[in-house]
Design goal:
Order of helices and strands: HHHHHHHHHHHHHHHEEHHHH
Oligomer: single chain
Keywords: Cell membrane, Ion transport, Membrane, Transmembrane, Transmembrane helix, Transport
Main location: membrane
InterPro entries: Cat_transpt
Shape: globular
Membrane topology: Multi-pass membrane protein
Structural class: mainly alpha
Protein name: Trk-type K+ transport system membrane component
Largest sheet: 2 strands, antiparallel
Distance between the termini: 80 Å
């Protein structure tokens, strides 16, 4: 009996290959959710890199170099806002549409986006898919270990959380666009152009990206305080995180019903906002290049705006390179912290800072456990917070040393831009636009790691780790 012909074998291969890919994806969603999330973001970046490389995406109709296309794709999907090209003049209308779509896709978050696609692949939201979605609001779930208590979002609420993510994004961006449209008209923008720029700026503020569709960025709107205020509101709503929005939507102003995560996020965010503004006003009031020529009211407002944008917003009215070195250090600290967990902001997150501060305070008072608002924060949460800070600092140190060696640029400028990339902020001293290709690849990798999250990357690498069913003898090394 004759075997299958070459044509028959080829036909079977073509039919079975898509099926094998599909089964591989389904298995990946259940066996390693974190790796699946990283795979999704990587795939999106490669797709958008190809799209940005098309001649139709550039204003002059020529293909964009690979380094610039890749950097823009990473900055867009990771909602960072840094760029190696002039975003207002380099891209065609098609290119700007790609940026608009990309930041909204990236704003959904690594784990939330992977959850939605995993739901499509798996046909239903099973237990592991629910764990994946809940992990976007609590990274401890992505680790695969036991979770003790007080989760931000319960497993039964994951479906509502995903609906809240999609609905809140749409509603908030539409509301921001409606507020921005008349403000753009008052600034001299023609009605047709404003019809496009209003939703664009709305998306860039809520996603905490900070791209501008016109040359000069926000310079034409430096005195339009209503527009700047709307942008600050958009940045704030995007930076507090979808779980907090979910909590506020469910419980409104019933503060006692708010989750501990929501309380810590809102309190820490407000404190950093006003403290940052006060420090910027104090350091820059005599700087003629920034606030020195402004009166008290203008200085106060611009300091508030700068404080809000260094948290992850990315918009800028003053030239960042004109700030005093002391202000750059303060800005770097704020960018390193970033916004809320499961938000469009980056950084180590405000809840990480809050947990670390509470742990230090409890240790100083000699308390055995970390307690706040009538709740106890378990030790595994404290360990994750410490790991996030350590990994974040390590990533920034390696990237700063590498880029400084490549460019031989002033270390202060390199450090600021690297932290801005890691924190997905988008502010720059002007260094990023001049990076050579090799340094831009390093910066792109830094942005990717900052957006995907150190916890997600660690969980992806350690997805196959084994449980240890024994404990070793205790011995205390000298610390401090």
């Amino acid at each position: 009996m004759a075997g299958p012909t070459v044509g028959e074998r080829l036909q079977r291969t073509l039919i079975s290959t898509p099926r094998s890919w599909w089964h591989t994806l389904r298995n990946l969603t259940t066996s390693s959710p974190s790796r699946f999330a990283v795979l999704i973001f990587t795939t999106l970046i490669l797709v958008f890199t190809a799209l940005f490389s098309l001649p139709a995406a550039s204003a002059d109709g020529t293909p964009t170099p690979l380094a610039d296309a890749l950097f823009t794709a990473v900055s867009t999907i990771c909602v960072t806002g840094l760029s190696t090209v002039d975003m207002g003049t380099h891209w065609s209308p098609f290119g700007h549409v790609l940026v608009y779509v990309g930041v909204n896709v990236g704003a959904l978050g690594v784990l939330t986006l992977a959850s939605i696609l995993g739901l499509v692949i798996s046909k239903k939201l099973g237990l592991r898919a629910k764990l994946l979605a809940a992990g976007d609001s609590n990274p401890l779930r992505a680790r695969g270990g036991p979770v003790n208590e007080g989760q931000t979002v319960r497993l039964g609420e994951v479906g509502q959380l995903l609906a809240t993510v999609a609905l809140s994004t749409l509603v908030i961006e539409v509301a921001l666009a409606i507020l921005l449209y008349p403000s753009l008209l008052l600034s001299g923008i023609d009605p047709l152009t404003a019809l496009w720029e209003a939703p664009y700026y709305a998306a860039m503020s809520f996603t905490n990206t900070g791209f501008s569709p016109n040359a000069g960025g926000l310079d034409p709107f430096a005195d339009n305080y209503f527009m700047l205020s709307v942008l600050m509101v958009g940045v704030f709503l995007g930076s507090i995180g979808f779980p907090v929005i979910f909590t506020l939507w469910r419980h409104h102003w019933h503060v006692r019903r708010w989750s501990l995560h929501a309380k810590l996020t809102l309190i820490t965010t407000v404190i950093l906002f006003f403290v940052g503004a006060g420090v910027f006003a104090l350091l820059e009031f005599d700087n003629a290049a920034t606030f020195g020529e402004l009166d008290a009211w203008d200085t106060t407002f611009q300091a508030l705006f700068l404080s809000a944008m260094t948290r992850s917003g990315g918009f800028s009215v003053v030239e960042i390179g004109d700030l005093h070195g002391s202000s750059l250090v303060v800005g770097s600290m704020l960018m390193f912290v970033g916004g809320g967990s499961a938000s469009t902001a980056g950084g180590i997150k405000v809840t990480t800072l809050a947990v670390m501060a509470l742990a230090v305070w409890s240790e100083a008072r000699g308390r055995q456990s970390v307690e706040v608002f009538g709740r106890r924060i378990p030790s595994d949460v404290q360990r994750v917070a410490l790991s996030v800070v350590a990994w974040g600092a390590t990533i920034i140190a390696i990237a700063t040393i590498t880029i400084a060696q490549i460019t031989q640029a002033p270390i202060a400028d390199v450090l600021f831009d690297v932290i801005s990339g890691f924190g997905t902020v988008g502010l720059s001293t002007g260094l990023t636009e001049t990076l050579p290709d090799s340094a831009s690849y390093v910066m792109a990798l830094t942005m990717f790691m900052g957006r995907v999250g150190t916890v997600t990357l660690a969980a992806a690498v350690a997805a196959t780790s084994r449980s240890q069913h024994y404990s070793l003898p205790v011995e205390r090394p000298i610390v401090g």
